[in-house]
């Protein structure tokens, strides 16, 4: 592993189409388009949506539909899934959906795949029906997708039309060491969910690199880390804005989800010491601050982990502040000396 400088890494966006208090999913989708168009202007590589279900504050359940919406409103940024939860879908349907997207937006579609349900067990049962107890083999289903996308499948009795013969990069997503082994064995790029499951991040990427087998898709390991980002002009402003994401994760920890709330001056009256510890453990890989703090912390993170790409997710209540956070983050990575990007919000 070679240590990477900030200027060596690509930077991207993970969007959950988060629904903020006082708004609707329709509002979230419009805001996602704003962020995606800004991200394209300031050099982000890709814009991914995550598949989640039955969460009042997350509206990215119909992931493929949102990918098409964002790809249609942009021109060059890659758009994809971070990820499609494969046990919820027949591989053929995924191949057809992403084959359609890649036909509409050639050279711009990514297919990130996860092995979790992206929801609770009751909702997973509603999604899968009689298939709920069926054995799901994640590597085998990935191979099925690769087969459907292959031009060699043209003589098969079951074909993905559209999809067959198209170049649609497949990524393995994960939050554990199991996914690292799958990505390594299959020679695929690996994206780790360190934005909410930081515990096994370093161990997983080491396993991935140590066991990576070159493939027709990828010759050497490629690691992307997803992290939480709240960037502002000052550390104090960023800390204030970050109380929204802390409350968001409080909902995860306590099971009492709510629409993304506005920031507060202090979290002291909102969480107890145990809840604070649990939330901050989940937020271990978060970059919260002004440009200088983020540059220092992100630079150290890139050097220590040798990541090839960082994917930022930003749960920020105010839309303009969220847009500005993505601007600052891009500038920190692109420039040696911080200077505000001259792009209108």
Automatic annotation (TrEMBL):
One of its GO terms (molecular function) is oxidoreductase activity, acting on paired donors, with incorporation or reduction of molecular oxygen. Residues 14-308 form the Luciferase-like domain. CDD domains: Flavin_utilizing_monoxygenases. GO terms for cellular component: cytosol. Signal peptide: none annotated. SUPFAM superfamilies: Bacterial luciferase-like. It holds the Pfam family Bac_luciferase. InterPro entries: Bact_Lucif_Oxidored, CmoO-like, Luciferase-like_dom, Luciferase-like_sf. To bacterial alkanal monooxygenase alpha and beta chains. This is Luciferase-like monooxygenase. It comes from Mucilaginibacter terrigena.
């Amino acid at each position: 592993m070679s240590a990477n400088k900030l200027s060596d890494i690509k930077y991207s966006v993970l969007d959950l189409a988060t629904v903020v208090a006082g708004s609707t999913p329709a509002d979230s989708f419009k805001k996602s388009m704003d962020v995606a168009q800004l991200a394209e202007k300031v050099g982000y590589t890709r814009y991914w949506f995550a598949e989640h279900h039955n969460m009042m504050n997350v509206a990215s359940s119909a992931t493929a539909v949102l990918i098409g919406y964002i790809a249609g409103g942009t021109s060059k940024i890659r758009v994809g899934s971070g990820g499609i939860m494969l046990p919820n879908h027949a591989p053929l349907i995924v191949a057809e959906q992403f084959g359609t997207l890649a036909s509409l937006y050639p050279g711009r579609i990514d297919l990130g795949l996860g092995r979790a349900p992206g929801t609770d067990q009751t909702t997973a049962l509603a999604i899968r029906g009689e298939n709920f107890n069926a054995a799901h083999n994640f590597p085998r289903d990935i191979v099925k997708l690769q087969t459907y996308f292959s031009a060699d499948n043209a003589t098969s009795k079951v074909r993905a039309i559209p999809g067959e013969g198209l170049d649609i990069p497949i990524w393995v997503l994960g939050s554990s060491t199991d996914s690292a082994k799958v990505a390594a064995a299959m020679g695929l790029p690996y994206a780790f969910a360190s934005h909410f499951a930081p515990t096994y991040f370093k161990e997983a990427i080491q396993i991935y690199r140590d066991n990576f087998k070159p493939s027709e898709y990828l010759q050497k390991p490629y690691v992307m880390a997803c992290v939480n980002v709240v960037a502002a002009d000052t550390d104090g402003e960023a800390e204030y804005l970050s109380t929204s994401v802390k409350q968001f994760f409080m909902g995860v920890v306590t099971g009492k989800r709510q629409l993304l709330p506005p920031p507060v001056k202090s979290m002291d009256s909102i969480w107890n010491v145990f809840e604070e510890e649990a939330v901050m453990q989940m937020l271990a890989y978060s970059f919260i601050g002004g440009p200088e703090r983020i540059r220092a912390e992100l630079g150290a993170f890139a050097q220590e982990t040798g990541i090839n790409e960082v994917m930022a997710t930003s749960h920020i209540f105010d839309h303009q502040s969220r847009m500005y956070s993505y601007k600052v983050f891009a500038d920190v990575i692109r420039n040696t000396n911080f200077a505000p990007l001259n792009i209108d919000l």
